[in-house]
Amino acid sequence: MNRSMPSGSSVNSARSAVHPREFLMWGFLVSVFMLFAGLTSAFIVRRADGNWLQFELPQAFAISTLLVVISTVTLELARKAARRNEFSALRAWLLATAVLGMAFLASQFYAYLQLTGQGIFLVGNPSGSFLYVISGVHALHIVAAVLAVLVTLYRAYRWEVHSKSLLGLRILAIFWHFLTILWLYLYTFLWWMH
Question: Which domains does the chain show, CATH number per domain?
Answer without folding.
Answer: 26-47+55-193 (1.20.120.80)
